[in-house]
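Suppose a classmate hands you a notebook page containing two proteins, each written out with its sequence and a corresponding row of structure tokens. How would you begin to make sense of it? This section walks through that situation. The first entry is reproduced here exactly as it would appear on such a page.
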Amino acid sequence: MKLLMTTVAALVIAASVFASEPDSNKVALKLVQPTKVQLSHQGSPEGLLTVKVYNHKNEMLVNERIHKTASFAKNYDFSQAAPGKYSILVQNAKGEVENMEFEIGATKQKDVYTKMEKISGNKYKLIVNALHQSDLNVAIYENGNLIFQERAEDSKGFSKVYDLVNVRSNSQIEFQVTSASGFSKLISAR
């Protein structure tokens, strides 16, 4: 009986520690297109979030406050922005939560083509073809969290089957393909 009470007490303490963890690991910034960044928050944000966007001269372009009580996602469109480097900073009341730097280049002709198909269960076939040899990157996200990343150096393309064995069946799966030439495409699997 004493062992049972000690175990229950330890579980209660552990649960309260996990419940009081800050929400910083639930905030994600992701480049979803060459000129679009997605801010997502899974869970219940703790108070006010502040989003600031800076250009390469460190001039603040956006200073936005977001007050949400449930999960949300918001896209920031930089298609009308001048080419250059930008940074996004997301802060909560306790300080910095997430930041991201990205570069917007001049509009280029599409030089990479992608196709993804679900084979069965959690198996997906990704086909990537590039017009010119380039470094190609594949990132796989589960519910907005990076779960796998690989790079094919100096490649004109590949075809590969990804078996995502540790992914829950109801998860949102996304494949992001990027190239050194600036191509970026986010493909939603579910």
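The notebook's second entry, a different protein, reads as follows.
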Amino acid sequence: MKTQKMNVRNYWNQWSAWIRKICFGEMDKAVKQKPPLLSGRNENPDEVLFSLETFLTENYEFRYNQLKDCTEFRKRNTHDDFIRIDQRGMNTLCLEAKKQGINCWDRDVSRFVYSFQIPSYLSLITPSYMPN
């Protein structure tokens, strides 16, 4: 019986505190406070995505190959061949971003890589017998 009274009393105290907050304007402060992020990150997700996008575009070149129907990448300012992005490439990009202090997940990298922000590329292969 005592525990039931305690539960009711606790419920009443919480409810009355909530009503006081609403009536006396303290609720505005509570509403303006941001709840902790459920993702386990301390940063704002928009800031993380912006930092990630900046890092990726400054260090890598991306293109969406329309003939191969895939996204490709290479290090910026190199003449290496473009490499198709697979799981291994995604993990590499994510780990490189983490080394730079960007608290991202692989799905953040995937969200950028498989978006319309990557320019399309249509490679036209000219056979060797065709004149230039």
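A careful reader of the second entry would note: The first strand starts at residue 60 and ends at 65.
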